[in-house]
Amino acid sequence: MDRNGISAILLGLGVGVGIGMLFAPKSGEETRELIKNKAGEGTDYLKQRGTEFKESAAEWVDRGKEALNRQKDSLSDAMEAGKQAYRDAVGREAASSETM
After folding, report:
1. 3-class DSSP state for residue 70?
2. Rounded distance, CA 20 to CA 41, Å?
3. I want to staple 26 with a disulfide (CB 3.0 to 4.6 A). Which of 30, 39, 68, 99 is the partner?
4. C-alpha to C-alpha distance for 51 and 44, rounded to whole angstroms
5. 100 by DSSP, 3-state: which?
6. How far apart, in whole angstroms, are the C-alpha atoms of residue 37 and residue 34?
7. Strand, helix or coil at 27?
8. 10 Å Cβ neighbour count for 34?
9. How far is CA 37 from CA 15, 43, 44, 48, in A?
10. Strand, coil or helix: what is 90?
11. pLDDT, tens only, 29-76
């Protein structure tokens, strides 16, 4: 951008700020107080949302742990059933070879 473009932007910005100050509905002190209050509200909102997010994340972690434990129990039961089926099959095979 050349110097004329930058000058035009700065001039427009200055005129905008000047008009804004002339037609501002509140004094500078009131405006600063309003900005300060809104910033405080924004901070409170972010803290609240952060707390909610943390609680939600903790719930998801707990649900994940519960699901993992259920899967682990199911896998353990399946492995035990497989071992028992193997023992039964080997036992039947040994019993049938003894009778022959």
Report:
1. helix
2. 24
3. 30
4. 11
5. coil
6. 5
7. coil
8. 11
9. 27, 10, 10, 16
10. helix
11. 887 787 788 888 888 888 888 888 899 999 999 999 999 999 999 999
